[in-house]
Amino acid sequence: MKKDFKNIFVEGAIDPVFISDSIAKHSAKKNIGAHSIFLGQIREDMVEGKTVQAIEYTAYEEMALEKMHEIREEIFAKYDLTCMHIHHSLGTIRTGEICLFVFTSSKHRKAAMESCDEVVERIKKDLPVWGKEVFEDASHQWKTNS
Description:
With 146 residues, this protein is α+β, with helices and mostly antiparallel strands. Helices cover 32% and strands 38% of the residues. Strands 1, 2, 3, 4, 5, 6, 7 and 8 form an eight-stranded mixed sheet that branches. The longest helix has 18 residues, at 61-78. The protein starts with 8 loop residues before the first strand and ends with a strand. The relative contact order is 0.26.
């Protein structure tokens, strides 16, 4: 029996309007005292004399969603959160565009900030998501998370 997990993946870059709308929707939640937000943006790095123009993200989606569900459950058990939202891009994301949006909310700032940081670190370390750096000359290399 296949279990449905909350989908975190978005095809293409994450629209800044989507981010601002997500934040605005939380003003109706009167039990929240703090939000913490992480936005991952594609950098125009220089690698061995070549300029990164984009990152092409791929994932083993079923496994990634199951792992993200586990991470989510662990974070909610560890921190007193009101809510958590995670959106990760798939496909080609150009430099300057947003590829990761993590948004945590709680009654107090410490839980919001610490949980957001931990979620980002766990995504980078544990999710089967790969980024291929695409250079201006159309060559590429697989990105290593640091």
